[in-house]
Write a structure and sequence with these properties.
The complex is a heterotrimer.
Chain A (H helix, E strand, L loop, with lengths): L13 H5 L9 H7 L2 H18 L36 H36 L2 H16 L2 H11 L4 H28 L2 H8 L4 H37 L11 H8 L8 H28 L2
Chain B lengths: L1 H26 L6 H7 L6 H11 L5 H13 L13 H36 L3 H15 L3 H15 L11 H31 L2 H8 L4 H38 L5 H10 L3 H29 L2 H6 L10
Chain C lengths: L14 H4 L3 H13 L28 E6 L14 H7 L7 E4 L4 E4 L2 E6 L5 E6 L13 H13 L15 E7 L3 E6 L6 H4 L10 H4 L3 H5 L10 E7 L3 E6 L20 E6 L3 H9 L5 E3 L3 H9 L3 E6 L6 E5 L9 H9 L3 H8 L29 H10 L3 E2 L5 E3 L2 E2 L1 E6 L6 H14 L3 E6 L2 H7 L7 E4 L8 H4 L12 H12 L4 H17 L3 E5 L2 E6 L3 E2 L14 E2 L3
Parallel strand pairs in C: 1-10, 1-11, 17-18, 17-19
Antiparallel strand pairs in C: 2-3, 4-5, 5-7, 6-7, 8-9, 9-10, 11-21, 12-21, 13-19, 13-20, 14-15, 15-16, 22-23
Classes of the chains: A mainly alpha, B mainly alpha, C alpha+beta.
Chain lengths: 297, 319, 558
């Protein structure tokens, strides 16, 4: 069976059908691109942030939980890079110690969204009309109930913590992953090289894994980068609405959500952790794009 | 076409019903019940009063009976009674829905326009620096917490510079600023997906063919590339309804606007089941309508979907 | 100290007028009715304090914009036990009596005279003539009787529960033309005080007949107050307009006539950070819930910081629930009581507007007894008490007993700006004596389920106590402690039956001692105060329940 196209067949898949080996990062061109300085410019700061999550105590001498009450609301200076909060705790220390909880929670959310979403999207796009219909109705239901409402209900039902927040936010992102995966897989699977692999005797699994997923993954990775950031932001949004983890837990979203009430007087409490969040999310997105370029997947 | 439409409307109703049912089950997870919360909010009440009220509202019935009663009520246009506000669910929601529709609707349109403008400018500009800036704009916007953006803007515009009111006073700015804040956040993923698929479209030889034929850059963009690249963005736009809803809740809270935001928050906080259910019916309906429109537009943009699959559903990959 | 409110709220009252005989005051009130045109004359002295630098006559007219904390949707008047509601309804509903914080006495309002039988089971009210509800119907003895029935028995048709302060209500009868007699099944010396509460606000008989939805809608509620509902934008604003024919203010009020202001617009500023800015930029004239950090900013900008003392309320406290079993032992509760460094609390998260608690009652409340000696910070003694109670320090520094960690949870609403930071600091302090506090203060979602849950150890709160301490601590399922303590209840019952005087004061002192020291059911923190920020042109006073009195407020028109 052949498919008609509006434009020359095989056109959009230079990096797929033409040279499937390009998927492997070990190609000479890939290695050359690893020396790309802008990749390292995004990766290095992220490595520092990862180190904050793993060994926070290497980066600060203060306690994230105990402050000096008489030294509260100190503006940023050489001792307290990000100033001190209402209880005299060092804000930079709380940011550093908050990294782990933040990344674990957001990471859990993204993993849930990615795994469940990819499975549903893939089944929908490749396993036949009935499966597609069922999977898409499921996705529609997940989307039709605002994920935010689901998060609220889950966080309310099981008191707020990394797991409940991660699950609540993760479920909310399943549907968008599923939709994008399905839409991409549909695009890719109609390409001639996929048809060709089938005609050449490829099995369902081999075609999906070797050809469809890699070629459909561009927008999915773009979404992944955005979604990790979105999850961090969603946590802070829930914190803003009063659905965050209880204090004294240091967590980025909570730090800006809690610090905001002093915005008029102690601007650093919400602004500096806010800058860290924005930078991290931007860097993650940039890293995603850099990796896309580098490995041409 | 009529058959297709009927099929899709049928699906839409199915989705709304499933959403309604799913949420009915989900709210059973909540640890208390609306009557106890309502009565104990004020002071000590005896169990007898709680029981009386529970039976008045039917909360003492078995779950299935409650569910069926609610469903019958909904079908006959009775959406129940919000305990916490003392109003009927319909009154409570319709009293403020207009405000949210104005905010979210405007933001939806503005977000779409913003995404197209950013992508158009990034694609068409000859300046590499400008393109770099524009390409990085969506991720930057996507990285700023909505409430934080709103609070900082309010602090600057209203308190420090005095150009707008802290309250929704009906002035242009008091709607425009929340709309822009909400649209900025919603447009970010839209622009990213559009940019991504735009790059893929521009990688295709037919663009080179058009260029060779002497078509202008903007002609190629708006007449050919945009149409070809719009699919994934349209998908994202369709599913943005949920994001828009969440964003509205936060934006309304920041800007002290009335709307569904506060209804949602109090409904969940007080476990006001009929109100939560009413909200789900509303958002699910909006969602299915928007996506019905998107699905109808999709084949127009990318005729391959219809041509290769008859009814728009993909066939199985396995031969 | 006793004139704390006077600093801002009653600056212009001259001593001779402060202790007037009841009858002469009634005459003043009557004169007020007869001479509407003289409205404002009573304030000839004008305010002249450090806080209100601009002295002068009240200015007629204008609109006052008042920023409340969060919007509410259910305005049912009997359930007005929180500020968002009572602060607004205070200007819409009149009550039979008014508590004058300056003299600590009940003064006549709609009841021109009131009396109690010696055994505190029968109360007679004489209803002031000529008062009407805003719907035009007369506020007469019959209307008062209907209101009493609604308060004492609830309104079944509208699913309205009886008002807790009116427990033991039997019946009300109209006697003669203008008198109502209330009979209780058991003595209650607090009954008269309860009639001064906003939750006992009088509404028109037509309002009482509305269904639940009708009684919840502020547009439908018809009272006899100085302001009436004009319009609302749900969740955004409520507009009240003055009643030009209002002439029945409480006897102690400066302004005996209609309000100076034409309108009051109630708006909502849920964002704490915006409240100070809203006042400084002149967008609101008055805002509740100023946070301590912003007080200095407001004062420095020439605007006003107005602390309104909550004499009608308990102090802010962590009410103890023993349902989880961890706080069964009174010595554990005592250890926690003295494990709180209140002075550090004041210096770190509060401000000079706040007085540290010395009892469960506010310093200015009738019957207050000073227990501050029992509340000193003694961490070593606290550790000793915990050791003796069998709670030994575990590996992580948290005490354990029989494999159970001394991990306790606090819940509270998010409406107080200082309560969450306060518990954050207490969390640090208690960690030092080996107690882990899970701070869920300010989490309204958790509060909804934690309030009826006896196993959540602490409820951070302050409560209106128009009916005395009994109603909030006595019932077996009371949301404060979820415990019915027989010894405590005996004191409550005796206090209610005692006639006002030294004997009753002793019983009141015994109640406080039991709650704070002997049984330590209440870990007291600071005297209830609501810190308002006001624009420099705003002149406003507050009730003993911290509600702004818009009837007597004005703007200097600067």
């Amino acid at each position: 069976m052949s498919t008609t196209h509006d434009f020359p067949a095989g056109a959009p898949v230079r990096d797929g059908a033409g040279q499937p080996a390009a998927v492997a990062p070990a190609s000479p061109s890939g290695r050359r691109r690893l020396r790309n300085p802008s990749l390292w410019l995004t990766a290095l700061p992220l490595a520092v942030i990862a180190a904050w999550a793993i060994v926070p105590e290497w980066f600060t001498a203060y306690s994230p939980f105990d402050g000096v009450p008489s030294e509260n609301f100190r503006a940023p200076d050489a001792h307290h890079l990000f100033g001190t909060d209402h209880l005299g705790r060092d804000v930079f220390t709380r940011v550093v110690f908050g990294t782990r909880q933040t990344l674990l929670t957001a990471g859990l959310a993204v993993v849930i969204g990615l795994v469940a979403g990819t499975i549903i999207g893939l089944i929908a796009a490749t396993a036949g009309r009935v499966a597609d219909s069922a999977a898409m109705r499921l996705v529609d239901v997940l989307l039709a109930v605002p994920g935010f409402l689901i998060s609220l209900v889950i966080v309310t039902a099981f008191s707020p913590g990394p797991i409940s927040l991660g699950i609540g936010i993760g479920i909310a992102s399943v549907a968008s992953f599923a939709r994008v995966v399905r839409s991409e897989v549909l695009r890719v699977r109609n390409l001639d090289f996929v048809e060709a692999s089938f005609l050449n005797g490829g099995t369902y699994r081999s075609v999906v894994v070797r050809h469809i997923l890699p070629n459909a993954s561009g927008p999915v990775l773009a979404l992944l980068a955005v979604d990790l950031g979105a999850a961090i932001l969603a946590i802070s949004g829930l914190g803003f609405l009063g659905f965050g983890a209880p204090p004294p837990t240091p967590e980025w979203g909570l730090l800006i959500a809690e610090g905001r009430q002093y915005l008029g007087t102690a601007w650093w409490l919400t602004t500096l952790p806010g800058v860290v969040i924005v930078l991290t999310v931007v860097l993650l997105a940039a890293l995603g794009r850099q990796l896309l370029k580098t490995f041409r997947i | 076409m009529a058959r297709y439409l009927a099929h899709r409307v049928g699906q839409a109703i199915l989705v709304v019903w499933l959403a309604y049912t799913l949420v009915f089950l989900a709210v059973q997870l909540l640890p208390s019940d609306p009557v106890t919360i309502f009565l104990t909010a004020d002071s000590a009440v005896d169990q007898a009063a709680i029981d009386t009220m529970k039976s008045q509202y039917g909360y003492d019935q078995p779950l299935l009976v409650q569910y069926l009663n609610q469903l019958v009520g909904v079908l006959s246009g009775n959406f129940g009674y919000s305990l916490a506000s003392g109003q009927s669910v319909l009154d409570r929601i319709s009293g403020v829905a207009g405000s949210t529709v104005a905010l979210a609707g405007s933001a939806f349109i503005v977000a779409g326009l913003m995404a197209v403008i950013v992508v158009a400018a990034a694609t068409l500009t000859r300046s590499a620096i400008l393109r770099r800036v524009l390409v990085n704009l969506p991720p930057l916007l996507a990285a700023v917490p909505v409430f934080w953006l709103g609070l900082v803007l309010l602090d600057l515009l209203s308190i420090r510079w005095g150009v707008m009111s802290l309250f929704p006073d009906g002035s242009v700015l008091s709607l425009a600023i929340p709309v822009l804040v909400l649209a900025a956040v919603v447009s970010a993923p839209l622009a990213q997906v559009l940019l991504k698929s735009m790059n893929q479209v521009y990688d295709q030889p037919f663009i080179d063919v058009l260029r060779a034929k002497g078509a202008s850059r903007s002609w190629i963009f708006f007449r050919h590339a945009l149409k070809n690249a719009a699919g994934p963005a349209l998908t994202v736009m369709g599913i943005t309804v949920g994001t828009l809803f969440a964003g509205s809740v936060i934006t309304e809270t920041v800007f002290a606007r009335s709307g569904l935001g506060s209804v949602v928050l109090t409904a969940v906080t007080t476990q006001d089941v009929p109100l939560v259910q009413g909200l789900v019916l509303l958002t699910a309906s909006v969602f299915v309508v928007v996506n019905l429109v998107v699905d109808l537009l999709y084949p127009l943009l990318d005729p391959r979907i219809l041509k290769s699959n008859g009814q728009g559903a993909p066939r199985a990959l396995t031969a | 100290m006793t004139e704390r409110i006077g600093m801002t709220s009653r600056p212009n009252r001259t001593p001779p007028r402060r202790v007037p005989a009841r009858h002469s005051l009634r005459l003043t009130a009557l004169l007020g009715i007869a001479a509407l045109a003289l409205a404002g004359c009573g304030s000839a002295a004008g305010p002249a304090t450090g806080q209100n630098p601009v002295a002068g006559e009240p200015v007629e007219g204008g609109t006052l914009v008042y920023a409340e904390v969060t919007p509410i949707n259910n305005w049912q008047t009997q359930a007005a036990r929180f500020y968002e509601k009572s602060n607004v309804l205070n200007s819409v509903l009149d009550r039979l009596t008014y508590f004058d914080a300056g003299t600590s006495e009940l003064v006549p309002w709609i009841a021109s005279e009131f009396s109690s039988s010696d055994d505190a089971t029968e109360f007679t009210f004489t209803i002031r003539p000529g008062v009407t509800f805003s719907d035009g119907s007369p506020l007469d003895a019959e209307a008062v009787k209907l209101n009493f029935d609604a308060l004492g028995l609830g309104i079944e048709a509208a699913q309205i529960q009886p008002n807790v302060d009116f427990a033991g209500y039997e019946k009300a009868e109209v006697i003669g033309e203008d008198q109502v007699r209330v009979t209780l099944t058991s003595p209650n010396a607090n009954f008269l005080r309860a009639t001064s509460s906003v939750t006992a606000g009088l509404v028109s008989p037509a309002t009482l007949k509305l269904d639940a939805a009708g009684q919840s809608a502020i547009a439908e509620i018809s009272g006899s107050g100085p302001f009436t509902f004009e319009s609302e934008q749900p969740d955004e604003e409520v507009v009240l307009a003055k009643r030009p024919d209002y002439a029945w203010a409480p006897e102690s009020a400066e302004n005996q006539g209609d309000p100076y202001l034409d309108k009051v617009v109630i708006k909502y500023l849920p964002e704490v950070a915006h409240r100070a800015g809203a006042i400084q930029s002149g967008q609101v004239d008055l805002a509740r819930g100023l946070q301590p950090l912003d007080e200095g900013t407001i004062a420095a900008s020439g605007n006003q910081v107005l602390p309104a003392q909550g004499v009608d309320l308990t102090v802010n406290m962590a009410a103890v629930r023993i349902g989880s079993g961890k706080l069964d032992d009174v010595n554990v509760r005592r250890a926690l009581q003295i494990g709180i460094d209140r002075q550090s609390l004041k210096e770190t998260v509060l401000s000079d507007s706040y007085d540290l608690a010395a009892s469960v009652l506010n310093r200015q409340a009738p019957g207050f007894t000073d227990l501050s000696a029992e509340l000193e910070y003694q961490p070593d003694k606290a550790r000793q008490l915990l050791d003796d109670a069998g709670w030994t320090v575990g590996a992580d520094g948290i005490r354990e007993k029989d494999g159970v960690a001394l991990e306790v949870t606090v819940t509270s609403s998010n409406n107080s700006v200082v309560i969450k930071p306060a518990f954050e600091l207490i969390e640090q302090q208690w960690r030092e004596i080996g107690v882990k506090l899970i701070n869920r203060a300010g989490d309204n979602t958790f509060l909804a389920t934690a309030m009826p849950d006896p196993s959540v150890e602490f409820f951070g709160t302050r409560q209106f106590i128009y009916g005395g301490l009994g109603p909030i601590f006595e019932p077996a399922n009371n949301t404060m402690t979820h415990t019915s303590d027989d010894e405590l209840n005996e004191i409550f019952a005796a206090e209610r039956a005692a006639t006002p005087g030294p004997e009753r004061d002793e019983l009141l002192a015994a109640e406080q001692h039991a709650l704070v020291v002997d049984k330590a059911y209440s870990l007291v923190l600071w005297d209830e105060v609501q810190v308002y920020g006001a624009h420099r042109d705003t002149r406003v006073e507050f009730t003993s329940g911290t509600a702004p009195v818009f009837q007597g407020a004005w703007k200097t028109g600067g």
